[in-house]
Automatic annotation (TrEMBL):
The gene is sucC. Keywords: ATP-binding, Ligase, Magnesium, Metal-binding, Nucleotide-binding, Tricarboxylic acid cycle. This is Succinate--CoA ligase [ADP-forming] subunit beta. Gene3D superfamilies: ATP-grasp fold, A domain, ATP-grasp fold, B domain, Succinyl-CoA synthetase domains. Its cofactor is Mg(2+).
Length: 398
């Protein structure tokens, strides 16, 4: 789960991480009060969307002006003008794609006198099974581009969970960023607080870009992006309350209600599979035969007929889906339950595209009997290779 910048900064502030003062607004008429509360004389008006590259982004609407999604205001009137132009308009960035995202929230923040900009992030490193930090002197830039063009400017290290952050970790960051004296001490303090926040809130990724040095010698998180482990959200009702569903795919929201692992993709073959590994293999073999999957969908090992029906409805709601592949290997998940769910779903929502079903494992014969006796126009498959070839052929046939 992702949250907005202003929400991320509020979370970090709880752990003592230095951030600028700011006020979130939702309506243009709230801009003046926010600007007066902060006092000025410099304000930064920031679009709040779940995507990076806001500063270099452009609004689709001419009325929004040409200054991008992050703007510097030197008067209260300018803050008001920017709020009027930006709220409700669609911002297109390198991460949103051409469709862009509508700006429904703004964060008005105190301006900062910046001397230097750095990059600092923490993430779960699956190779080491630890939390790793990534630091760079190239703050404010696309870190992927830095990694590609000048990898020597990136330093990374992992934290042993048995010890947590140690003094040498702070020294590593300070050395990588060229910080000495009091700034080196501040760097160590920030790393310790970020690690504490990361662990306490079950984060997946925490990015500060840029981390700045102000002209009066203070380190400060000027931007913040946080994503959380969705599987741990039951422990964090305060974080769940920050969820902005307008930033999420409607199908993914529906899937979360059925406790389905669903990710929307841009292909044409809808997939319903049990088990993440099998789902990935299914996506791969669809690509092997020249088509693209429309989604990743894992119904899990304990799916009920209701859950399967919900999954099928989500797949068919995608207008890009030209065919559906159901691939079930029954272990804990029983093939007859899947079959009953598919039949119930098709009868409920109809079937307008080709459907291929491959069943194997527990209660497979009963599952096949349910499908074959349903009277539905379903193509059976013997194995995954056969299923992939059949669904690709069916959608190409039209």
């Amino acid at each position: 789960m992702n949250i907005h910048e202003y929400q991320a900064k509020a979370v970090l502030k709880e752990f003592g991480v230095p951030v600028s003062r700011g006020v979130a607004i939702f309506k243009p008429e709230e801009a003046e009060a926010a600007a007066k509360e902060l006092g000025g004389p410099l304000w930064v008006v920031k679009s709040q969307i779940h995507a990076g590259g806001r500063g270099k982004g452009k609004f689709k609407e001419a009325a929004a002006g040409e200054k991008g999604g992050v703007r510097l205001a030197k008067s209260i009137d300018e803050v008001k003008d920017f709020a009027q132009q930006m709220l409700g308009n669609t911002l297109v960035t390198i991460q949103t794609g051409e469709a862009g995202k509508q700006v429904n929230r703004l964060y008005i923040e105190d301006g900062s006198d910046i001397e230097k900009e750095f990059y600092l992030s923490a993430l779960v490193d699956r190779e080491t099974s630890r939390i790793s930090f990534v630091v760079s002197t190239e703050g404010g830039m696309d870190i992927e581009a830095v990694a590609h063009d000048t990898p020597e400017k990136i330093k990374s290290f992992s934290i042993d969970p048995a010890t947590g952050v140690m003094p040498h970790h702070g020294r590593t960051v300070a050395e990588a960023l060229g910080l000495t004296g009091d700034l080196a001490k501040q760097a160590g303090d920030i790393v310790s607080k970020l690690y504490a926040a990361f662990v306490a809130k079950d984060m997946e990724m925490l990015e500060i870009n840029p981390l700045i040095v102000t002209t009066d010698g203070q380190l400060r998180a000027l931007d913040a992006k946080i994503s959380f482990d969705s599987n741990a959200l039951y422990r964090h009702k305060d974080i769940v309350a920050l969820r902005d569903t307008t930033e999420e795919d409607e199908k993914e929201i529906a899937a979360s209600k059925y406790d389905l692992a669903y990710i929307a993709l841009d292909g044409t073959i809808g997939c319903m599979v049990n088990g993440a590994g099998l789902a990935m293999a299914t996506l791969d073999i669809i690509k092997l035969y020249g088509e693209s999957p429309a989604n990743f969908l894992d119904v899990g090992g304990g799916a009920t007929e209701e859950k399967v029906t919900g999954a099928f409805k989500i797949i068919t709601a995608d207008p890009n889906v030209k065919g559906i592949l159901v691939n079930i290997f029954g272990g804990i998940m029983k093939c007859d339950v899947i079959a009953s769910g598919v039949v119930a779903a098709v009868k409920a929502v109809g079937l307008q595209v080709p459907l291929v079903v491959r069943l194997e494992g527990t209660n497979v014969e009963e599952g096949k009997r349910i499908i074959s006796s349903s009277g539905l126009n379903v193509l059976p498959a013997d194995d995954l290779d056969d299923a992939a070839q059949k669904i690709v052929a069916a959608i190409r046939k039209g």
